[in-house]
Amino acid sequence: MYLEHNKWRQTQRNEQRVRSLESLTDLLQVATDIARTLRQTAEQIDEGQNVDMRAVADRIDDLIGQLRRQGTVARIVGPRSAFSLIATLERQIAPIYRLVAEAGRLGDGSALVEPAQRLMETRDALIDHLRSTHTPS
Q1: Which of 48, 63, 79, 102 reaches 20 to 30 Å from 87, CA-CA?
Q2: What is the pLDDT of residues 71-86, one digit of tens each?
Q3: Within 13 A of 79's CA, how many CA atoms are on the CB side?
Q4: Percent of the chain beyond pLDDT 90?
Q5: Considering only 24-33, 98-107, 110-119, which range has the smallest mean pLDDT?
Q6: What pLDDT does residue 115 have?
Q7: What is the Cα 53 distance to its own chain's centre?
Q8: Up-side HSE of residue 66: CA atoms within 13 Å toward CB?
Q9: 8 Å CB contact between 73 and 51
Q10: Where is pLDDT greater, at 43 or 19?
């Protein structure tokens, strides 16, 4: 009986780790998608291409919503040690929608490059953190 209970507890812990990693992976993917969209938009604007800023704004808005949802899920099932990095991602996305509108209005994509870089740096920090805390047993 004791061995069965321990096996059940170990299975529960493993399932929790999997849920945690899945939620954080989804969060990282959304952060990457936001940064990629910002960089591509900046490049297109700077190259003088006709960019449909409404479509870009809709895409960014959708991705921001996804990041916020994934951030909530990651806080519920993820490690507490990652909370500050998740909060940093959420703070970094707050001004992005306004920056997209401004870049489209001014025809200058350079305002989108720095937020994209900061998102990627925070994403990389979160990846490094996960590598250090989620090593296989």
Answers
A1: 102
A2: 999 999 888 888 999 9
A3: 16
A4: 55
A5: 98-107
A6: 93
A7: 22
A8: 18
A9: no
A10: 43
What pLDDT was estimated at residue 135? 58
Q: Sign of the C-alpha dihedral, residues 56, 62, 67, 68?
A: positive
Token representation of residue 16: 């929790």
* Residue labelled with tokens 């590598």: 131
Q: What are phi and psi of 132, to 5 degrees?
A: -80, -25
Question: Which residue type sits at 39?
Answer: R
Q: Exposed, middle or buried: residue 91 (CB in 10 Å: 0-12, 13-18, 19+)?
A: exposed
Amino acid identity, residue 71?
G
Q: How far apart are CA 90 and CA 15, in angstroms?
A: 26
CB distance 112 to 103 below 8 Å: yes
